[in-house]
Amino acid sequence: MAQLKLTVNGVIYEADIDPRLLLVHYLRDTLGLTGTNVGCDTSQCGACTVLVDGLAVKSCTMLALQASGSKITTIEGLKQDGVYHPLQQAFWDNHGLQCGYCTSGMIMTAVDFLKHNPHPTEAEIRHAIEGNICRCTGYHNIVKAIKAAATQMADNRPLQRPQGQV
Amino acid sequence: MATQIIGSTVKRREDPRLITGAGKYTDNIVLPRMTFMAILRSPHAHARIKKIDASRAQKHPGVLAVYTGEDLKKGGVNPIPVGFVLPDMKTAQHHPLAIDEVHYVGDGMAAVVATDRYTAKDALDLIDVEYETLPVVVDGEKATHAGAPQLHPEAPDNVAYYWKVGAGDADKALTEADGVIKQRIINQRLIPTAMEPRVAIADYQPATGDLTLYTTTQNPHLIRLLMALVLGQPEHKLRVVSQDVGGGFGSKIYLYADEVIACFAAKQLARPVKWTEERTENYKATIHGRDHITDAEVGYKKDGTITALKVKTWANQGAYLSNFAPLIPTFFYGPMLQGVYQISNFFVEVWGTYTNTTPVDAYRGAGRPEAAYLIERAVDWVAFELKMDPAEVRRKNMIPPFTSAPYQTSMVYAYDSGNYPATLEKALKNAGYADLRKKQAELRKQGKYMGIGISTYVEITGAAPAQVAASIGAGVALVESALVRVHPTGKVVVYTGSHAHGQGHETTFAQIVADQLGLSVDDVEIVHGDTERTPWGAGTYGSRSQPVGGAAVYVATQRVIEKGKKFATHMLEAAEADVVFEGGKYFVKGTPSKAITFQEVALEAYTAKKVPADVESGLEAISFFNPSNFTFPNGAHIAVVMVDPDTGKVDLTRYICVDDVGKVINPMIVEGQIHGGIVQGLAQALWEGAVYDDDGQLLSGSMMDYALPIASNLPSFETSRTETPSPVNPLGAKGAGEAGTIGSTPAVANAVMDALKPFGVRHIDMPLTSEKVWRAMQKK
Ligand code: FES
Ligand code: FES
């Protein structure tokens, strides 16, 4: 067993864990944060994406121990003061999800992406979500949603900054 | 009622939970004392199990039990049945865990139950198995050849069934044709890849005998019925719950072995048992789709008229027949080869064959994509041979508009309604077809290869008229139910037998009710996915949820309105015949100013202040809707591609489609269904394909090796619609879930072949990878 200490959605956790425990299983099984999904076992699908110190990371590809000392934001930590993050709102407004299984990962990837590229083109958005697979939407409305969120965030930046962002 | 909620875009009510990570997917469920199951799967495609020894695994700390096929058999577990039976079908025994012999890589052999998921997996490595490997066949046609390895003694030559359908005289028409095209054409095997792998949690209460199965299914009631048969668990002591499901596309229709084993183990151990599929496991253990090898002969006249189609198809069904597998390459394929055309001579033969591969069943489109791909390629072959424009060949053969009476096709079905020429012309116009052709000609002069592909598809959905379904082999009535329950305050809960796994029924079904009752969508709750709460229903697949499930919601709501009239009659002190219901209010014809609201009537239904004793209290109604015919969505899709002559790489640059899915409840949701469908279909044309080697190893066995479509390889889509209401259900809906997939595969394939026309290439098989395309371009 090994000592883990990290912050998830603003809460500090300490635990003695099996060193081989994946971060995604720690989040889902130990903390009960089941908004982060598992869609593959080869790091392809991105359903498990969370923010580790502000960067989008596939949490199935990281041991929980490797995240020791980090600040993690999951989809559950995105809504602030009862207000949806602009990306959550935009996914809803633009029908950017169907079954919703890829959605948490898509949104977390997009949070990181828009931080680095606040005014993306369609091609840049499509490139940014290459590591997130959606089988339902054909990506059309996901791209539209990210574009809409970018516009909204550019207009209204300071208010909508999600937690965990540097 | 003129509130017009039906037909308008309403934002989805399921989204708030899904965008905040609060979805109720099966794997999120945690039960007290829950255990974890892992399955040992065969690494060989065909082998005799000489010995299986689980003693080391059993002794591993944390392991509660290990089960083999023999254990299940001794425990009274039956083989998994087939729910669609053709005449003379040879059904191989499909035990949930293999006994004596394994028949494909992934065939389950033993199950470990342990205190946590990591331990369960560790223990799989401690099971010792001795195999005697046997010869393997993976090809659906070669399996029937003399000397091929035999899978099941019940099925000589590996033929599960032979089936045929025809019309007119295909041989005579081929002899009399001006030209005949003979072409072998492959519709490759696909892996559905719903983003959520399958999960099953079984929870047994020994004191009461109640068994609950939480599972990722598209049709909880079918699973309960099949599970009751396999497990011998009384149906009233079995509850199946399936809440949020992360995509299905057909792959979550069937009763799977893993669910049976979890239930068996939960009963044995009297502890909840959870099994979560891994993706690599999913690629082997969950059904695949398509996999046809076809020899086609097309007869045509000089003017482009198609006179005959003769087809031999070997449909690879995998190692066992999955629940509905025999329906797909037969009734959902053969008759649909007519497409949108007036062709009168057909002969279609199908061999459903066993091979050492994962079982094949319905995958998005199921049979119709195979049919549409064949006939739409055939039309382009004729255009190629006659040097005609493919749009012109389509016009020449197309069934004229029929909007008031059904169109009797040459084989089996009568199309419900359609205006195929209007759909084609609209798509050509939206695409700017004439300009595209001009541009193509200019680009060719510069050595650039643009391709324009058209497909004009029709498909069959809305299963099914129960008596027709029963007559062709269905094991259950494919009707759909809805119970509409009005509470005293006028709030409504709808219990539906349909199931949503991305389709948004919580929104669209509420729209139907709100529209009829003059309520807000927020006053209507939709309950699905729990056999204990919802009436029996056949579930969601084959784009049936609006034309059958939505229709049930509509009919039940109408019945509520009628029942409400009984209360209103007394409240208004009028004659029942004079009372009308409009805009959410009951009133006496001609005096809308003295109306009473639906809410007032609902309250009266539970308080009985004004009604006499002979008016029964309560306000709810149920419908088991049985449509009078299938529905036949159709459309015209146009793809534009650029092919790089140096690398063979295909870039999809534009995609234009016009779909007629009948009346639409929520345009935003229908568009979303079309987008997703298009991508699944075009991915078959360009990238996806399940590949087995000769030993039966699945080479495309993980997401790393199977080419799924990603955002950066795709454009945005130019969608639009035409609308011919279906006369077979009161909503006029035809179903929209599979249309995109069926239309897009041939559109994109035709576009690539169109680009290759200067190279004299008539046909290459999908997926149209750079290498294949480049090689084809070198032949000139
Ligand atoms: S689950 Fe992490 S990338 Fe697929
Ligand atoms: S919404 Fe279903 S996988 Fe993306």
Short characterization:
Chain A has 5 helices and 5 strands.
Can you characterise this structure?
The complex is a heterodimer of chains A (166) and B (780). Chain A is of the alpha+beta class and 166 residues long. Chain A has two domains: 2-76, Beta-grasp domain (Ubiquitin-like (UB roll)), CATH 3.10.20; 86-155, [2Fe-2S]-binding domain (DNA polymerase, domain 1, Orthogonal Bundle), CATH 1.10.150. Chain A contains five helices and five strands. In chain A, strands 2-1-5-3-4 form a five-stranded mixed sheet, covered by helices on one side. Mean pLDDT of chain A is 94; it is low at 159-166. By secondary structure, chain B is an alpha+beta fold. A seven-stranded mixed sheet of chain B has the order 3-5-1-12-9-10-11, with helices on both faces. A five-stranded mixed sheet of chain B has the order 7-15-14-13-8, with helices on both faces. In chain B, helix 9 packs across helix 10 (390-397), helix 15 (545-571) packs across helix 16 and helix 17 crosses helix 18 (739-755). The longest helix of chain B is centred in the C-terminal third of the chain and has 27 residues, at 545-571. Chain B is globular and about 85 Å long. The model of chain B has no long low-confidence stretch (mean pLDDT 96). At the A-B interface, helix 2, helix 3, helix 4 and helix 5 of A face helix 1 and helix 17 of B. Bound molecules: FE2/S2 (inorganic) cluster (2 copies). One FE2/S2 (inorganic) cluster is lined by residues 38-40, 43-48, 58, 60 of chain A.
